[in-house]
Amino acid sequence: MNKRSIMLILFVLVFLASIGVGYFYLHTRNDQKKSAKVEENITNPKTITNEYITTDQSEEKVSPNANLVATIYYGKCGHSKIDIEEVPREVVNLSEDEFKERFDDWKVDFFSEKQISISKEVANICPDHYIVGSADGIVNIYKMNEEGEEELYETTNIYLEYLPEEDQQEIEKKIEVIGRENLNALLENYD
User: Fold this and answer.
1) What domains can you pick out in the chain, each with its CATH number?
2) pLDDT in tens, 54-71
3) Which residues have CB under 8 Å from 96's CB, separation 6+?
4) If exposure means fewest CB atoms within 10 Å of the residue's CB, which of 1, 98, 143, 177 is most exposed?
5) 3-state secondary structure (DSSP) of residue 132
6) How many helices and strands (H and E) does the chain possess?
7) What share of the chain is helix, strand, coil (3-state, %, to 5)?
8) Of 157, 151, 150, which is closest to residue 136 (Cα–Cα)?
9) Are 99 and 108 in contact (CB under 8 A)?
10) Taking a C-beta distance cutoff of 8 angstroms, is the pair 108, 54 a contact?
11) Which pLDDT score is estimated for 37?
């Protein structure tokens, strides 16, 4: 045998011996851990006493991830508007009573740590009412204010003279439109 093969055999023997020592060490170490755990779980029956632990029935509080669902009912038009948003930082960790104090002009319909639903009724008209009319030959958009009066909201670049006679007459009489989407659709017809 040459030197190279002897070195290879010695290397393999040392490798196998180290595996054996490592296995033995880990195996005996796990047994020691298991016996220590068993000893921890064994209690002396003479030391057991009847103990009662009371839990605190704490109030539910607003979570930082909660949603606020606010519904406004408009008395003049009968519409309602629902807004869903994350709760403001200043209401996080408030109890229901604390929340009611802060939002005393709202009715709390539902309260949990994940969602709060509030509502209120107002005598106004909702902000989704638009009126399409004209002034100085140009199509204008008006909104109804809280008193029910028309206020100029937007002046368009649509001239009455370029519209068909039927559309001109409708606009001069004024067209009431509910919702921004409906308003945009109506104005697109005039472009």
Assistant:
1) 67-122 (3.10.20.420), 129-190 (no CATH)
2) 444 567 888 889 999 999
3) 59, 60, 108, 111
4) 1
5) strand
6) 4, 8
7) 40, 30, 30
8) 157
9) yes
10) no
11) 52
Within 13 Å and on the Cβ side, how many CA atoms surround 70?
A: 10
CB 104 within 8 Å of CB 141: no
CA max distance for the chain = 115
11-28 pLDDT per residue, tens: 888 888 788 777 777 777
Residues listed for the chain: 191
Residues 156, 158: Cα–Cα separation, whole Å:
5
Sign of the dihedral through C-alpha 168, 169, 171, 172:
positive
Q: What is the DSSP string of 108-126?
A: EEEE-SSEEEEEEEESS--
